[in-house]
Amino acid sequence: MSLPLILTVSIIAFFLTYKLYQWLRFKLPPGPRPWPVVGNLYDIKPIRFRCFAEWAQVYGPIISVWFGSTLNVIVSNSELAREVLKEHDQQLADRHRSRSAAKFSRDGQDLIWADYGPHYVKVRKVCTLELFSPKRLEALRPIREDEVSAMVESIFLDCTNPESLGKTLQVRIYLGAVAFNNITRLAFGKRFVNSDGIMDEQGHEFKAIVSNGLKLGASLAMAEHIPWLRWMFPLEEEAFAKHGARRDRLTRAIMEEHTLARQKSGGAKQHFVDALLTLQDKYDLSEDTIIGLLWDMITAGMDTTAISVEWAMAELIRNPRVQKKAQEELDRVIGFERVMSETDFSNLPYLQSVAKEALRLHPPTPLMLPHRANANVKIGGYDIPKGSNVHVNVWAVARDPAVWKDPEEFRPERFLEEDVDMKGHDFRLLPFGAGRRVCPGAQLGINLVTSMLGHLLHHFCWTTAEGVKAEEIDLLENPGLVAYMRTPLQAIATPRLPSHLYKRVAADM
Length: 509
Prior knowledge:
It contains 18 helices and 10 strands. By secondary structure, the protein is an alpha+beta fold. The protein has one domain (3-502): CATH 1.10.630.10. A 5-stranded mixed β-sheet has the order 1-2-8-5-3. A 3-stranded antiparallel β-sheet has the order 4-10-9. A hairpin with a 2-residue loop joins β6 and β7 (382-384). α5 (118-131) packs across α12 (272-283) and α7 packs parallel to α18 (442-459). It starts with a helix and ends in a 14-residue tail after the last strand. Heme binds at residue 439. It comes from Gossypium raimondii (Peruvian cotton).
């Protein structure tokens, strides 16, 4: 045996022995038996949260799963979720950053990927008090309502086109346009798409940056879990540097546009980019942090809203009773002579319950982002060593028969019978997380999902194509961090209001 091979085998053996000694000191949660080197990586099914829920049925509500040499602990009921997100929140408030996440976030200079500490507390304060305050959300309401009305007009034009009468629409296309235009306008103060649907140069550049970021992030998957094999999968430093420079170049150009406009007008607008630039000195925000925060908004807000509404529409088509009941409420409160506004929400409890029930059954991020232990801690009577990752399976928590009656049934009435908070105070329902790392934009997300659903239901009746049974709609997810429907929803939209109520109401702000 050659000397280099002996040295390599010896180093690996020493590393594994040391790891084994380390972990034998702890009483770890039960789980499937890991393989040497790869852990449970080859046992995990592609839709991870469903796989972990199945394992929880075998091993209990808290399980150990090894991603290579990294321990991941998954909890699947509300009591354990409370321990993780409330009772031991401070010890579990750090983030596990993959190499790509570290690069994208400038090693945690943003909010999403920052470890818990002074920087996180400061940036979180900016988000809570400034960016997502009730006053700013209300000031930005015209943008949200503009984009929702643009979606309604687009669907109306397509479903009444003589060439497409009786044909299904791919619902995701319309929802994605709302999410894209809404988040770029909120974050950057720009609608990259004109009224004819033509995207400008900056819009194409923005889309290319998002697409390239996804590709770069996916290129490292396997090596992330086995640190001592990373030399076989080197980080493409040049590709990440080019991506970062490209992202920063576009963001700085937009920031400069806003600075010049502010100097010319003498006042700041409500968009996040203006807010952050005017607050830069007050909160001592670096340019890296401002850019990181703006892209956090894009990352967190672009997919999740469209995903949630597509799932809700699938359930409403599968459950015509619920669709009809929601429409009856809308007809009673809004009528047939005007369109819905966010100010109507308080008079539409059933619509709000439909949104809640969709987020219960289909949370857009079913495992949330992992929490990383910054100290040894006990959860459910088991040891969680420092450096472990802890995931809350919010998908499993929201389907737990111990706390939900008929958990698999889409029944919005459950939220009329009992008021359940979904912004982090009730640990049975956690679509936005809870504790120190709860999503600061939860109310914005709830408003947009509810508004999109209300308009889709008030303006149209939704059915499957002729010959397709509602129960045949595929309710499985695509693998990934966010839970897209595996099969995009196809449906027939039939207008139900006077034609003059389908015009976009543009808001120039």
